[in-house]
């Protein structure tokens, strides 16, 4: 009878993560019969089933779920050891990367420069988009890594590590709300009641922050939506309304006096940004990129 080895355990975790033998086979660059054979060997050695079939998906049995929970930390520890010993400078291949628009407008070019210097043979396919769409693509295996604001991912299926936080402010054009130094002449409640209000799309992590304030203060106002953060900034700068923006994106406009902070506005929770990636077979390159992002990120 074949002994249990690390490949059996890695295969088990990939099936648990991806939901099918075929998906695990594709992820591990092998065939579905090979994956099936590994699981038969594993179950034969263990003496109990680790999966039961539900349609096209494979669900963990109770014992299988307990086993996965036990071995995931061990596999992660092995990855950490390999990462500490491995030299990623000769790594090659394509990294599919999803990033938030704010990152693209701030420190992403410095990140790419550093990544190319550290691993010159890597290629990048970068998608700039909404958090929810990038998370869906990560879950489907179409992206290798995402840098996003609070991706709704659990550590059971993905690695998630912080890369910084940003302040969130209610801002408007001084032509629309007046000026008292760096703040608006109009108080924030008056501004929201009497001026148009803009927000990023409902899928954005900033949208619920704005809606909570509106609900908490019983404001009966409509909110206009814009899915592109640069267009949203331009709309607010041009005086078409007030809105919630991240400080790094409007820092220059605030310093030039093109925008002002709405006076006496409540303090919003700082918005955390994270790196997230799947439980890949090899973590060396991804971890190197995440460490670079944490070092270069201007979000603190």
From TrEMBL:
Alphabetical list of Pfam families matching this protein: HTH_1 (PF00126), LysR_substrate (PF03466)
Protein name from the UniProt record: HTH lysR-type domain-containing protein
InterPro entries per UniProt: LysR_HTH_N (IPR000847), LysR_subst-bd (IPR005119), WH-like_DNA-bd_sf (IPR036388), WH_DNA-bd_sf (IPR036390)
Signal sequence bounds: none
HTH lysR-type domain residues: 4-61
GO molecular function list: DNA-binding transcription factor activity; transcription cis-regulatory region binding
Key words of the record: DNA-binding, Transcription, Transcription regulation
Source organism per UniProt: Bordetella genomosp. 10
């Amino acid at each position: 009878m074949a002994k249990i080895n690390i490949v059996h355990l890695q295969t088990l975790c990939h099936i648990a993560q991806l939901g099918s033998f075929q998906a695990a086979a594709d992820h591990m660059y092998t065939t579905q019969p090979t994956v099936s054979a590994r699981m038969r060997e594993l179950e034969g050695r263990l003496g109990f089933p680790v999966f039961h079939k539900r349609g096209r998906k494979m669900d963990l049995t109770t014992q299988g779920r307990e086993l996965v929970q036990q071995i995931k930390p061990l596999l992660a520890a092995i990855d950490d050891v390999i990462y500490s010993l491995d030299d990623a400078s000769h790594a090659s291949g394509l990294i599919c990367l999803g990033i938030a628009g704010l990152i693209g407008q701030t420190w992403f070019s410095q990140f790419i420069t550093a990544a190319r210097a550290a691993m010159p043979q890597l290629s990048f396919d970068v998608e700039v988009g909404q958090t929810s769409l990038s998370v869906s693509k990560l879950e489907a295996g179409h992206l290798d890594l995402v840098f996003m604001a609070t991706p709704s991912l659990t550590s059971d299926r993905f690695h998630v590590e912080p890369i910084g936080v940003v302040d969130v402010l209610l801002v408007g054009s001084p032509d629309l709300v007046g000026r008292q130094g760096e703040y608006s002449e109009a108080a924030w409640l008056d501004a929201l009641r009497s001026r148009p209000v803009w927000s990023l799309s409902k899928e954005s992590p900033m949208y619920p922050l704005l809606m909570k304030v509106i609900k908490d203060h019983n404001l009966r106002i409509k909110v206009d939506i814009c899915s592109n953060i640069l267009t949203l900034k331009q709309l607010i700068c041009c005086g078409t309304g007030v809105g919630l923006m991240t400080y790094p994106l409007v820092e220059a406009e605030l310093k030039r006096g093109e925008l002002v902070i709405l006076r006496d506005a409540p303090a919003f929770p700082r918005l955390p940004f994270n790196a997230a990636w799947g439980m890949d077979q090899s973590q060396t390159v991804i971890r190197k990129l995440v460490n670079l992002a944490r070092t270069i990120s201007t979000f603190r």
